[in-house]
Amino acid sequence: MNVTVLPWRAHDSAVWQAATPGAVHYASPEPGAARERGLMSDEPLPVPISMRGLTKVFDEQRAVDGLTLDLRGGEVFGFLGPNGAGKSTTIRMLLGFIRPTSGSASIHGLDCTRQATAVHALTGYLAGEVHLFPHLTGRAHTELVTSLRGVHDPEPAEELAARLDLDLTRKAGAYSKGNRQKLGIVMALIGAPPVLLLDEPTSGLDPIIQHRVWEILRERAARGTTILFSSHVLGEVEQVCDRVGVLRDGRLVTVEPVADWRAHQKRRIEVTFAGALPAPGALDVMGVREVARHGPTVDLEIGDDVDALIKALANYNVLDLRTYQPTLEDLLLGYYRQEAT
Ligand SMILES: Nc1ncnc2c1ncn2[C@@H]1O[C@H](COP(=O)(O)OP(=O)(O)O)[C@@H](O)[C@H]1O
Ligand SMILES: [Mg+2]
Questions:
Q1: Which domains does the chain have, with CATH numbers?
Q2: Which pLDDT tens digit goes with each residue over 49-81?
Q3: How far is the CA of 131 from the centre of ligand 2 (A)?
Q4: Which residues line ligand 1 (CB under 6 A)?
Q5: What global pTM score does this model have?
Q6: Do 230 and 200 touch, CB atoms closer than 8 A?
Q7: Which ligand is nearest to the CA of 126?
Q8: pLDDT digits (tens, 9 = 90+) for 114-159
Q9: Which atom of ligand 1 is nearest to the CA of 98?
């Protein structure tokens, strides 16, 4: 059995130490270091995040409906769904903030409802709405979390803030929405908890900062952190996740590795020609299909690989080329159609 992706056993360090307030020290997320410290063994490790028939009913509405899912150590899992799909409700159940109507969830073997305090010691959380103390500076917030987490070194928080261009000297009340979001992310990451639950972490951030957040998440995952994050943006989960689960009306419509999913997502490309148009069907090279033409423009549907198309286009005078990634709506429409047939 390959155990190197899971850097420690949950019952080893953080959980026991969480029982002693103020003394939570996470084991190093480096598998090598964990092994040196004797934290690795061949016994089966608890699954970092596990859900079994997890269900929440609000006033007869099934907000989350029978989710069964296991996340692997060091995995970045994207929880993709439109507003109201049940993403936040799922994350709130994983933290024990709300009680499942039925089913259960565990984090590193700890029950999310009955052992919520121990779960919190292992988990960094970013809420969908970040609540801060308006009269305290950003730094006062990071210092508070640093001490609550039992971490003694303030440097990692300072470093994260610098990477996200966040000024920690200002009061939280003066922060823009983007800065509140950045501070929430920094606070979730302090102490390098082995599990991160992030509710739409990049919403309200500009693209450069979004990329930095993705980079930080990939770094954490490479060190063994298990990350569940929600999003309603298809492109984002494609960029950063190992696997994606699509949630609609509280149900998982599909769970797939991103690599497989990319391979069967169709994109659209519109090519506008300056001179003669290709003969009908001339562009139907490998993986490409002509779907329409209007005036000098030909609409094509294409899979993962653009190479054959680019080579076929080299024979023509191309004025413009636009590609359209499918949106979450396109994707969900595809699943509705599949169900209808
Ligand atoms: N506390 C609550 N009381 C009643 N209904 C709720 C509550 N929280 C969420 N819901 C409903 O549950 C569904 C799922 O919501 P939510 O988990 O917030 O979705 P998402 O995060 O995917 O946008 C929505 O229809 C929402 O209105
Ligand atoms: Mg939400």
A1: 49-262 (3.40.50.300), 266-325 (3.30.70)
A2: 999 999 999 998 999 999 999 999 999 999 999
A3: 15
A4: 58, 61, 63, 81, 83-89
A5: 0.80
A6: yes
A7: 2
A8: 999 999 999 999 999 999 999 999 999 999 999 999 888 889 999 9
A9: 1
